[in-house]
C-alpha cells in the first residue's frame, strides 16, 4: 500500500520509523515539515520514497537504504553534509538530491547500473560521474563533472 500526504501544509517533524513494514510507496511532498531525516531502518518492501519540497535539514545516510528501493527523492529541502553513494540499492532507478546544501567529494564510481536518472544540480557536491547511454544525470550548478560513456564502455 502507499502513503500520500502531498500539499497538505503539514508542519512539524517526521519520524520514519513509524512507517508500516508493508508500505511500498511514501510520498510526503510540498509541506512544511522540518527536522532531520533518518533513512535507516526503512521498510524492506519500500520502492518509492519521495520527501521533496519540505524543510528537512541536517545530514542523511544513503548507505543502508532498503534493497527494494527504486526511487529516492529528497530534493528541495535544506539537507547538508557529504553524501555516500557507493552503497545504493542495486534496484535504484532514480535519485533526486538537487536543491540542497550537500557538499564535499562524492565517489560516483559505484553507482548501480540500474540508475537511469540522477539529479545533483544546485548543490556543492564535487566529483566525476560516468554517464552511459540511456542515462540522464543533471549536474548544473554543482561541482560534478559528467564524462560521457558509449555503449561499449569507451569514453
Fold and architecture overview:
By secondary structure, the protein is mainly beta. It has one domain (2-148): Ribonuclease Inhibitor (Leucine-rich repeat, LRR (right-handed beta-alpha superhelix), Alpha-Beta Horseshoe), CATH 3.80.10. 0% of the residues lie in helices and 35% in strands. It has no helices and 14 strands. The strands form 2 sheets. It has a 7-stranded parallel beta sheet with strand order 1-3-5-7-9-11-13, with no helix packed on it. A 7-stranded parallel beta sheet has the order 2-4-6-8-10-12-14, with no helix packed on it. The protein is globular, with a radius of gyration of 15 Å. The N and C termini lie far apart (43 Å). InterPro entries: Leu-rich_rpt, LRR_dom_sf, PRK1-6/SRF4-like. This is Leucine-rich repeat protein.
Helix content: under 10%
CATH superfamily: Ribonuclease Inhibitor
* Second rung of CATH, namely the architecture: Alpha-Beta Horseshoe
| Poorly predicted regions | none
Q: State the CATH class.
A: Alpha Beta
Mean pLDDT: 95
User: What's the main sheet like?
Assistant: 7 strands, parallel
Kindly estimate the percentage of residues that lie in beta strands according to DSSP. 25-35%
Radius of gyration: 15 Å
Spatial strand order of the main sheet: 1-3-5-7-9-11-13
Global outline: globular
Q: What name does the CATH topology carry?
A: Leucine-rich repeat, LRR (right-handed beta-alpha superhelix)
Structurally, the number of domains stands at 1
Number of helices: 0
Which H/E pattern describes the elements?
EEEEEEEEEEEEEE
Secondary structure category: mainly beta
- How many beta-strand segments? 14
Cα(first) to Cα(last) distance is 43 Å
